[in-house]
Design a protein that fits this description.
Layout (H helix, E strand, L loop, with lengths): L1 H14 L5 H11 L8 H11 L3 H10 L11 E6 L2 H5 L2 H12 L8 E3 L5 E6 L11 E3 L2 E3 L4 H12 L5
The structure holds FE2/S2 (inorganic) cluster (FES).
């Protein structure tokens, strides 16, 4: 942990005085973490280092969707649960991928496999409703997705292939 705090000190030092430093620091801290997330003690360390209230650091970390407060899988599957996608079958897609990976969504709407290979999460709308149902795998958008296509993509990742 001491090494990790030292590396966070280096990140803070490299960004100090920059416009929007807190955002950039949190991005760097998350990017260099083991499972792409911000730990509570790391947020506290950033707050102390910058002389900011912890509440301010938490409010930034929770406001932006790209910050994670829980460990993330190596691959992230995001299923749209907006109205257009719902009416075109996004719930069965979500159920299928959860069942295939043997996980259930927690209260925050995400689920990560025990081996940290996959995280499944939902989003309110990708803004591509005409292409519903829409999912993203590792930020690559897939449109008009069918269950068999989704399973094929996931199986390919499980076998170590690229999507
Ligand atoms: S509702 Fe799914 S992209 Fe808009």
């Amino acid at each position: 942990m001491i090494d990790r705090l030292r590396s966070i000190d280096a990140i803070v030092a490299s960004r100090r005085g920059e416009h929007g430093a807190l955002l950039s620091i949190l991005e760097d801290v998350q990017r260099t973490s083991d499972h792409n997330y911000l730990k509570g003690e790391e947020l506290a360390h950033v707050a102390r280092s910058l002389g900011l209230p912890l509440s301010q650091v938490y409010s930034v970390a929770t406001f932006y969707a790209f910050f994670n407060l829980k460990p993330q899988g190596e691959h992230v599957i995001t299923v749209c649960r907006g109205t257009a996608c719902h009416t075109r079958g996004s719930k069965p897609l979500l159920d299928t991928v959860l069942s295939h990976l043997g996980v259930t969504l927690s209260d925050d709407g995400s689920a990560t496999t025990e081996d940290y290979r996959f995280t499944v999460k939902t989003v309110a709308c990708f803004g591509q409703c005409a292409l519903a149902p829409v999912i993203a795998i590792d930020e690559v958008i897939h449109s008009k997705v069918r269950e068999d296509q989704l399973l094929e993509l996931v199986r390919s990742l499980q076998q170590g292939g690229e999507e």
